[in-house]
Structure formats: structure tokens, C-alpha cells
Design brief:
Layout: E1 8-13, E2 20-25, E3 37-44, E4 53-56, E5 64-67, E6 72-75, E7 79-85, H1 88-102
Antiparallel strand pairs: 1-2, 1-7, 2-3, 3-5, 3-6, 4-5
């Protein structure tokens, strides 16, 4: 079976409260023997310009940001449709805000990438 991969943006059913929305996959590749779960950072058009948002211009998405405070793990079956793939620089920006939100020592990622416009 083929699973969503890191850096891919999928339309994902996040449940009743969070709706169906674009999310980027941030988890590692999973194998058939692993639990069929993916970890995601949702995209929002309600930007608040917090330190935990990666404000990126992505051609296949409406203007908005990926919000690390909304990180979620869901079953693969909730991934509805592949929308596209982010560039490596965009993933670095998302990783930087994730590190900031989770308090991880990810200094090598560079703080400036998270605020890329």
C-alpha cells in the first residue's frame, strides 16, 4: 500500500470540529508493519502571524499559513486527496516552527526560515 509521504500536502478529514482541510505530512515514511498513522500540520487561511505559523506562498493553496499549534496525528484513511508537494525550503520553514512550538533544540534549521513570506 502507498501511504502519504513527508512534504506532501493532502486534503485531510480532521473530524467534525476541524473540517476537511489541507495539511502537510511531517511524519516519517511508514511501512506496512507500522501503525497506519500520519502526523500533519494543518494549513489555515485565518492567519494570526504567531511565532508558530509558517507563512508560505504555495501555488496550489489559498493564501495562509501552516500552523504548528494544530499538529495532529490521524489514521491514513483520513487522507482524502493529494494536492501537491512542498519544496525543501518550505519544509524547513515548517520544521522550524514545529521545533519552536515543541521546544525542540533544532537550531541548525535557522530561525529566519520560519518567517519566510
Amino acid at each position: 500500500m502507498t501511504y502519504p509521504s513527508r512534504a506532501e500536502v493532502w486534503l485531510v478529514d480532521l473530524g467534525l470540529a476541524a473540517k476537511v482541510r489541507p495539511c502537510v505530512v511531517v511524519s516519517s515514511r511508514i511501512a506496512d508493519a507500522d501503525r497506519a498513522l500520519i502526523t500533519l500540520v494543518p494549513h489555515t487561511t485565518s492567519v494570526r502571524r504567531t511565532a508558530y505559523e509558517a507563512n508560505l506562498k504555495v501555488e496550489f493553496l489559498k493564501p495562509g499559513a501552516f500552523d504548528a499549534q494544530g499538529i495532529v496525528t490521524v489514521p491514513v484513511a483520513h487522507a482524502v486527496r493529494l494536492m501537491g508537494r512542498l519544496r525543501p525550503d518550505d519544509m524547513k520553514a515548517i520544521e522550524a516552527v514545529l521545533c519552536r512550538w515543541l521546544g525542540l533544540p533544532c537550531h541548525e534549521m535557522g530561525e529566519s526560515a520560519a518567517t519566510k513570506q
